[in-house]
Amino acid sequence: MNSAERVKAKAAELGFSKAGIARVGEVGVEASRLREWLDSGFHATMHWMKSSIEKRTDVNKVLPGAKSVIALAMNYFTPEKHPDSGEFGKISRYAWGDDYHDILSEKLKMLDAWLGREFIGYEGRYYVDTGPIMEKAWAQKAGVGWIGKHTNVITQEMGSWVFLGEIITNLELEPDSPATDHCGTCSLCIEACPTGAITEPYVVDSGRCLSYLTIEHRGNFDKEFRTDGWIYGCDVCQDVCPWNERFATETEEKRFQPREGSVAARLTDWKSMSREEFSARFKRSPIKRTKHEGLIRNIRAVLDEKV
Question: In terms of CB atoms within 10 Å, which end of the chain has fewer, N or C?
């Protein structure tokens, strides 16, 4: 078993669903696409993406001497479905359980420590959606999955219900072949997007995306975007993806299982939630990202739409 195979075996032992390795090198095409996306203003108010562009397009600015990126994916799918009733608000499946940042960071920390013990001179930096790195591009380069037309990474084994993490390292590990695109002529995600946020294949305008509007955006948003009952995130583009319909399998990580009330959030009850109740209910939950005022804003927007 070579070094790369040992790393991937350890990742599987720690609970990662898939791991791949990419050699640090040119990212000209990916960097050009990112810059074009930013220049189009599709990042909306996520200004940190533009301010960190130099690091995002060169991992050696994150870890000098970087030679490999270990890309990891973890399945979070659970089969529950939202109630088909206007009484309930919809929360994105990824936020039904505990915060993925905590869970993946815990496992990455263990993998990082193991690498330090196993390989003399090891250096590494690990991230879970928290650092200046093009994690989806590296996941594709490492063979984990391809970036679909909805811009989520799709794996052939599990579909797109996966969280991503990565370790940038100075180790020179045998790379995997990059993943190839298997979206074909399918355009279901584009056609299904309730706000037309997927402006063309592989391009999302964050300013129109319900996930951005209900989580990252501060302040009110136009009534045209108050649609379909979503109060935190949106899963429409993933729900219609044929790869998810065929290959989604239930996660083995118990902490991703839905918390009480997360699949069926009764709007009239949640609308009166206090700050203290919000803090207690969403401790160690990704929903805390939107803050109390953001969640209440989203609930009121959905309720107003039905008046």
Answer: C
DSSP, collapsed to helix, strand or coil, labels residue 88 as strand
What tens digit of pLDDT does each residue of 68-86 get?
A: 999 999 999 999 999 988 8
**Cβ proximity of 284 and 99 under 8 Å:** yes
User: Which of helix, strand or coil describes residue 64?
Assistant: coil
Task: Determine whether 129 is an active site residue.
Answer: yes
Closest-CA residue to 118 (of 271, 6, 24): 6
Q: Which of 102, 129, 205, 269 is catalytic?
A: 129
- Rounded CA-CA distance 268/136 in Å is 38
The H-or-E segment that residue 16 falls in is none
**Mean pLDDT of the 210-226 span:** 87
- Is-contact 73 235, C-beta < 8 A? no
CB of 252 within 8 A of CB of 162? Answer: no
- DSSP code at position 219: S
Query: Contact, 175 vs 68, CB < 8 A?
Result: yes
Residue 154, beta-bridge partner list: 146
Is there a contact between 141 and 166 (Cβ–Cβ < 8 Å)?
Answer: no
Q: To the nearest 10°, the Cα dihedral for 155, 157, 160, 164?
A: -60
Residue 282's pLDDT is: 96
Please state, in angstroms and rounded to a whole number, the distance separating the CA atoms of residues 107 and 256: 14
Distance, in Å, from the CA atom of 293 to the CA atom of 187, rounded to the nearest integer, reads 35
φ and ψ of 99, to 5 deg? -65, 120
pTM for this model (two decimals): 0.95
d(CA 84, CA 63): 48
